[in-house]
Each structure stands twice: as C-alpha cells, then as structure tokens.
Design brief:
The chain is mostly helical and about 200 residues long. The protein is built from eight helices and six strands, in the order H-E-E-H-H-E-E-H-H-E-E-H-H-H. The longest helix is centred in the N-terminal third of the chain and has 20 residues. It is globular.
Amino acid sequence: MRKQSRPNPPLVLEANAAKWNAQWVAKKRANPAASFDWYQFEGRSVREYLVPDLRNMNQGHCSFCDWFPLEVSSNEPIEHFRPKSREEFLEQAFEWRNLYYCCELCNTSKREQWRDELLAPDSDDYLFDKYFEFDFTTGEIKPNAYANPTDQIRALATIELFGLNKNSRPKYRQLALRNWSRTTDPVLDDFPFRDFIDLGNLTA
C-alpha cells in the first residue's frame, strides 16, 4: 500500500456532496435494505466524474494492493473506505476523503466490513515501512516486526480486510519483480506491486 496524496475534490462533488449524502441517509433509514447507486448529474453517473481523479491519485494502481492496470482487469470499483451502508458512516457515502480507486479483489474482500484500526494510504502519518514488511521468500506482506504493537495490529487488520495475501497475490508479487528485472529500461509505474519491486531490488 503506497503512500498517496489526495487532490482537491472534483467540483461536482464539492458542490453536491452534502445534498447527495443527505439523500442517501434518508433513503437508507427509510428502507434499511436499500442498495446504493451513484446518482446522476447532467446525464452522467456521478461515478464517471470521480474515477479519473481517483485513478490519477495512485497512477492507475489499486489504492490498497497496488494491482495494475485496473482498466483491463476490472470495472474500476470505487471503494468506500468507511462502509457506505453502515449506520455510523451513512453520511460519508459521497465524502471525497472516503473514496478510493480500488481493484475488484480488494473491494470484494473488504465489502462492508470495518475496523477502526484500518490504515488509509493518504493519511498524513502513513508510511509503508512504519507498518509493513515483505517476506521475499513467499511474496507475502506482513506487519513490520519492529513496529510497536498498536501499529502491528493496524497493519494486520488492513492485510486481513483487503485480502492482501489472498488470491495468489504473493505469487504475483514475485512475478512482477521477475518481470521488472527482465525488462530493459522499465518504468516502475507500469508494473503492479511497486513497493515489492522497490524493496526487492534493494534486497537482491
């Protein structure tokens, strides 16, 4: 999970988020079984306005596992970090800081789960090395063994909820590193799992 810097919200969201949040809260409280849909604005889904800026925030990579490219391998889900269907977070369904560009595997692994310990890649105090380390013999991501207990708990919660070691991801991290090493003049942003490649080069 690479450190990210969040841009300013799209103007359409800045102007309408409060209204859309209120509409979603009213809908969900009137019918707890109601499902979430992106509203329409000027003939287009609000989602269409948001994806480009969210995609650019992490150079087209998944905000959590760093898979790439999402346009080819998924429908580019938008992840609601704080789940949009949980009562305590209903008012954040259209909150810019709650939205992330995400792959299908991370999105379907987390679903509507929540833990207060979860790490956000654009938090001011987030640094990969503070929380995580890689096992290069297996390709797994693990809590940093030298981190304090609280930070280790946060790392483990993030690994578990986003399924960062599931669905052959460790194997694909190792494959990405091998592909990088075999490519002439490679560009890091063109590869998935950039932190694994970066640190793998240092330990090789």
